[in-house]
Specification:
By secondary structure, the chain is of the alpha/beta class. Helices cover 30% and strands 22% of the residues. It folds into 2 domains: 4-125, Enolase-like, N-terminal domain (Enolase-like, domain 1), CATH 3.30.390; 140-338, TIM Barrel, CATH 3.20.20.120.
Length: 347
């Protein structure tokens, strides 16, 4: 029976707000793809990211463009965020292997790819980890994010989270030395990783690296803009540095050698689980440590990332913990321990 596609935009309120060097947001806007064949259905979720030129409307148009019954006037019109596309027929030859040839790496491909994995698992009565040749997933410890704010505000957030073993501290603004020192004082026993989200410059890099070293930071993500990361090849790395905005798929990896020590694999960047598996394998061969992260999203987006994260050096999959509420059948978190997804959610 032909596979039919539905795609929906959703807004999920964030508990409080989420702030990084590029700005603040109060909600997570995601796109959910459902593939159904009359007997089984599979789902995938993505979070379009403006940093990569993505919007909810643009992602929906990209997904819509794959439909065999698409009309030109539909593909060119602006869609409201709540617009829902139902019961679209996909081409008969459409599968995961062809997906990478027709859509670039990014959010749209991620939602489709993960929905395909989920549908395949439901049809075959085999979990995705088995289909992918992986071992059964086990619970993992995830980082918990401390948003960028004034030093005293970040210290209060860190104090409230001080029992968590791993904190991810958002930096990337003036006075970061004071911020990381305040967080360390408030959470003396937590392992700290820092994410500057491209917010530092070549001029501020040395002082910020020194401040992080003083605070015992274990890893620093994307300190410089991706266009400027060549600077990293010419400086010592007293703390390992991880590429985030500078890495998307396998094609990016070779150029990062000598600049970065680790790479952050996110399914919304790779274009889904299929490419993420390949990126992880290639990154290990090139000697990179691996972080697995995600955008702020619901458990449906995090579930497939947990499979990649099983052998990761750092796990940053706290998206659902940052929301005011999660979707039904969401992942179970025991403090910072996140448990594998149930079949009712995904996979």
């Amino acid at each position: 029976m032909p596979v039919r596609l539905s795609v929906t935009a959703e807004c999920w309120p964030i508990a409080g707000s989420f702030t990084i060097s590029r700005g603040t947001k109060a909600e997570a806007r995601v796109v959910v793809v459902t593939l159904a064949d009359g007997s089984y259905s599979g789902r995938g979720e993505c979070a379009p990211y403006a940093r990569y030129g993505e919007t909810v409307e643009g992602v929906m148009r990209s997904i819509r463009s794959l439909a065999s019954d698409m009309r030109q006037e539909d593909s060119s019109r602006d869609m409201r965020p709540e617009y829902r596309l139902d019961d679209i027929a996909l081409p008969d030859e459409f599968d995961r292997m062809r997906l990478g040839a027709v859509l670039p790496a990014g959010a749209a491909r991620n939602a489709l790819d993960c929905a395909m994995w989920d549908l395949e698992a439901k049809r075959s009565s085999r979990p995705v980890h088995d289909l992918a040749g992986l071992g059964p997933p086990h619970p993992l410890t995830t980082a918990y994010t401390i948003s960028l704010a004034a030093p005293e505000t970040m210290a209060a957030a860190a104090a409230a989270a001080r029992a968590r073993p791993l904190l991810k501290v958002k930096l990337g603004a003036p006075n970061d030395r004071q911020r990381i020192a305040a967080v360390r004082k408030a959470a003396p026993d937590s392992m700290l990783i820092v994410d500057a989200n491209e917010g530092w410059s070549a001029a501020s890099l040395k002082d910020n690296l020194s401040a992080c070293a003083d605070a015992g930071v274990r890893l620093i993500e994307q300190p410089l803009p991706a266009a400027d990361d060549g600077v990293l090849a010419d400086i010592a790395h007293p703390i390992p540095i991880c590429a985030d905005e500078s890495v998307h798929d396998r094609a990016c990896l070779a150029a990062l050698r000598g600049r970065y020590d680790a790479v952050n694999i996110k399914l919304d960047k790779t274009g889904g689980l299929t490419e993420a598996l390949a990126v992880a394998t290639a990154a290990r061969k090139l000697g990179f440590a691996i972080m697995v992260g995600s955008m702020v999203s619901t458990s449906l987006a995090i579930a497939p990332a947990l499979l990649i994260a099983q052998d990761a050096d750092y796990v940053d999959l706290d998206g659902p913990l940052l929301l005011a509420r999660d979707r039904a059948d969401g992942l179970v978190f025991d403090g910072s321990i996140v448990h594998p997804a149930s079949p009712a959610l995904w996979g």
